[in-house]
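assembly run, all chains below
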Amino acid sequence: MARLVIVSNRVASPKERAAKAGGLAVALREALSQRGGLWFGWSGETEINPPDTPKVFRSGRVTYALLNLDPEDQRAHYAGYANGTLWPLCHYRLGLLTFRRADWEGYRRVNEHFARALLPLLKPDDNIWVHDYHFIPLAAELRKLGFAGRIGYFHHIPWPTPEVYLSLPSHAALVDDLSHYDLVGLQTENDVRALLTYISSEVHGWIAPGGTVGLKDRRFRVAAYPIGIDAEAFVSDARKSVGKDEERRLNESLAGRRLAVGVDRLDYSKGLPGKFAAFGELLRSYPEHRSKVTMMQVAPLSRSEVAEYQALRRELEELGGAINGEFAEFDWVPLRYLNRPFQRATLAAIYRRALVGVVTPLRDGMNLVAKEYVAAQDPEDPGVLVLSRFAGAADELKGSLLVNPYDIEGMAAAMDRALTMPLEERRQRWRTNMDNVETNTIHHWCQRFIDELTNVTDQFGPPGDQ
Ligand code: ADQ
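ok done. output:
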């Protein structure tokens, strides 16, 4: 079996506990420890003119290789091009997009530095799997250094339609970078269509059935790999929470009220101001819910070094304060707003207690919270998922109440419908969603991507023969 090499910006260290590292990091670590392999990424540390030699250590069957970055390059790469340019672009927020040539150059320098440091650790038959928009040019940089083996890329966030994508000054260079991979994975068929349309209409590539793409002298495959969760672990955490101290405290604090829950990184793609406004609208237009429902929004801080995230935090504090100011009673606070991370088991208990899961991003590659909420429900008395049609998960979770996150009154109406839905309908809708969550797990996702990466080059001829 070919060795697996994973490249990602952040690496879940062997000591990081499952509950803290997040579902994706844990799944990747598991995929690596089953097969044995290498995890390569940023050390989290900066150093002026860092050498191309990572810190390498082993834990069980996994070798970790962590690289320091130059502080200015790290800023240009992470806060600059990755999160100031690509993130807003891919989430259709052109008004928030900044493009600076210095950031683009810094982004490329970090990818070159990564490639130089990774190359000596590679074997020709490795399966290299690169994660996310921080590293789109990595394959091109490895090819420049002469590496001809298999490299796959997975894009965790949406791929925008050509009209939006063309706003990126470096659009052609970035897709040229993608063409150095053997396999490019996106979250949904919509994303695949968007990328293939751009390739055929803007850069004169050709597309064969099955998603094989020809661009200049290169061949690669583009396909959808919708990511899943570790459904079993969530089901078991949620079941175990029953009767535990945290569940008891939560129930006592709610005093028999219904709970609506939102869990999102504090990020402008997640549609948090609209969600707060919709909850305010629910209380205003459906007064029968006043004092009967509590909304809990868990929103751990994220990317605080980027100005837009600081502004969003202030906006939410104001909006949340205004809702509580308008509707609170001396014995009821409508909105509980928490800016901190929780253990997975605690999240599972909160999801299970909530009659409504409110997941309303303006755009989202997939959205794992939607799937976690479904997995954590009590099958006998499940809650209802209110889900944005612009989350990748909307393609799969057909039992949800789909909403347009730009329609505040529409979201309030959906919350009302969820809060008053008969048990039989809740069960049917939940079953539809759960069938999907249980079938397409994170383990299937990992396995399918790796299998197709292993086989993809057979279809094009041996590596280097293109
Ligand atoms: P994210 O934008 O981070 O991921 P999401 O898919 O919802 O969004 O994943 C967030 C994860 O963080 C979930 O597993 C959730 O449980 C966890 N989390 C959130 N708040 C937490 C808290 N307070 N405490 C602990 N854990 C918390 C990106 C893309 C998504 C895509 C994923 C995976 O933006 O669209 O689904 O990658 O591909």
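Residues 408 and 447 are 40 Å apart (CA to CA).

The longest strand covers residues 37-46.

not gonna interpret more than that til we talk
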